């Protein structure tokens, strides 16, 4: 029995067509088995490491992941209406927002990996790429989880102008307005801003930054732009030191960066991070993981961790299914007349039925793993 993903061909900006957690087989429609997703996530991560090493594209991958997740609005209820890390940045209407200028290049870089691993959702690939980029730049280990389900269509693209502006009239109020909408605190805002320790601003994309500086004119990667730090491919607390000291005219400080040392509520954290890299790494990791989970629906619901043992996922799934069935049985049994013998025999029959069903389900989904191995 061979399984085929429902759709694997996609153009940049079309969101990956009907790419989903579903696969077809002669026996009908199945979800990708979490073990297949885990295996492909691990392979995708290895491919991402090669890509990042070759292209030095850490910064743009981090920015891409953030711009997908940062659309979340906690005041809107129900998945996927609230936005967040649901993969919609792949779709043309959202990718073409002014705030996303240049991110099509990151989507193009990820496309071969996306095509190669159909069990990995678009939303997961974006967040996996961002987290891998941070870790490879020397940043903290991020305790991420995966198994995100993609928003079903471009109808769920975020509206324009929901991400922060770099030069608003009142930067502190603006940052609070945007990040509180996502459920973040002042502490999170300052920690997340530290991601600007990586990368550059380019006038032809955001309108900010210089065409080039002594730190960017020869790359690495595509030359040009203005960075916040001298070593803009290294993830450390250099951003806070540079923004605080403002001694290097070649480095960028946006109004929303400067305000971190001007606003009393932000300053306490910004000063701490300038002095204590461990504190920055701890808080950054926590805020980044929170960002990457905004608005997400996971399958399985507890998510998949790259360190999970494959059998753990099967075990958890089976236990969850059995527990749900037994709960249902208990609810029905509670309504039955209290004749002990009848009760016991009903219980045994139902239990045997559930066990048989579990075996049948396992057999029906058995082939998904070999496919994952072939793809990997
Ligand atoms: C606090 C509000 C923020 C504002 C106003 C802001 C604004 C900007 C701007 C204007 C650029 C330049 C883009 C370009 O010209 O290509 C940029 C780049 C970048 N941003 Fe932010 N950003 C914010 C928060 C964040 C957060 C929360 C993250 C990640 C967690 C992040 C990660 C990055 C990265 C890595 C780059 C460099 C991209 C590259 O080199 O291609 N930013 N940001």
From TrEMBL:
Keywords: Membrane, Oxidoreductase, Transmembrane, Transmembrane helix
PROSITE patterns: PEROXIDASE_1 (PS00435), PEROXIDASE_4 (PS50873)
InterPro entries xrefs: Ccp1-like (IPR044831), Haem_peroxidase (IPR002016), Haem_peroxidase_sf (IPR010255), Peroxidase_I (IPR002207), Peroxidases_heam-ligand_BS (IPR019793)
This enzyme's EC code(s): 1.11.1.11
CDD domains hit by this protein: ascorbate_peroxidase
Segments forming domain Plant heme peroxidase family profile: 120-323
Enzyme class label: oxidoreductase
GO biological process, one term: response to reactive oxygen species
Needed co-factor(s): heme b
GO molecular function: heme binding; L-ascorbate peroxidase activity
Transmembrane domains' residue ranges: 346-364
Entry annotated with the keyword Phosphoprotein: no
Entry's family note: Belongs to the peroxidase family. Ascorbate peroxidase subfamily.
Protein name, entry field: L-ascorbate peroxidase
């Amino acid at each position: 029995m061979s399984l085929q993903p429902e759709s694997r061909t996609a153009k940049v900006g079309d969101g990956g067509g009907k790419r989903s957690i579903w696969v077809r087989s002669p026996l009908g429609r199945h979800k990708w088995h979490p073990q297949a997703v885990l295996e492909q996530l691990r392979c995708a991560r290895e491919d991402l490491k090669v890509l990042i090493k070759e292209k030095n594209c850490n910064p743009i991958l981090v920015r891409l992941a953030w711009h997908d997740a940062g659309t979340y609005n906690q005041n809107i209820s129900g998945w996927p209406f609230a936005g967040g890390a649901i993969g919609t940045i792949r779709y043309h209407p959202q990718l073409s927002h002014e705030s996303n200028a240049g991110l099509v290049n990151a989507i193009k870089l990820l496309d071969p990996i996306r095509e190669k691993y159909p069990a990995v959702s678009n939303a997961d690939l974006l967040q996996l790429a961002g987290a891998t980029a941070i870790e490879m730049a020397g940043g903290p280990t991020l305790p991420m989880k995966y198994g995100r389900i993609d928003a079903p269509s471009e109808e769920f693209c975020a509206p324009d102008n929901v991400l922060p502006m770099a030069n608003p009239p009142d930067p502190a109020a603006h940052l609070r307005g945007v990040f509180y909408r996502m459920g973040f605190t002042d502490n999170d805002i300052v920690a997340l801003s530290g991601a600007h320790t990586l990368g550059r601003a380019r006038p032809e994309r955001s309108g900010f930054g210089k065409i080039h500086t002594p730190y960017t004119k020869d790359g690495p990667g595509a030359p040009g732009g203005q960075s916040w730090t001298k070593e803009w491919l290294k993830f450390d607390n250099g951003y806070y030191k540079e923004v605080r000291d403002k001694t290097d005219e070649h480095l960028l400080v946006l109004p929303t960066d400067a305000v971190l040392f001007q606003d009393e509520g932000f300053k306490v954290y910004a000063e701490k991070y300038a002095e204590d890299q461990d504190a920055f790494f701890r808080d950054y990791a926590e805020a980044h993981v929170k960002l990457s989970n905004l608005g997400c629906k996971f399958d399985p619901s507890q998510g998949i961790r790259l360190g999970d043992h494959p059998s753990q996922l099967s075990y958890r799934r089976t236990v969850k299914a059995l527990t749900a069935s037994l709960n249902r049985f208990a609810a029905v049994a509670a309504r039955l007349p209290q004749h002990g013998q009848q009760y016991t025999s009903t219980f045994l029959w139902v239990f045997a039925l559930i066990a048989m069903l579990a075996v049948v389900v396992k057999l029906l989904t058995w082939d998904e793993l070999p496919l994952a191995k072939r793809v990997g």
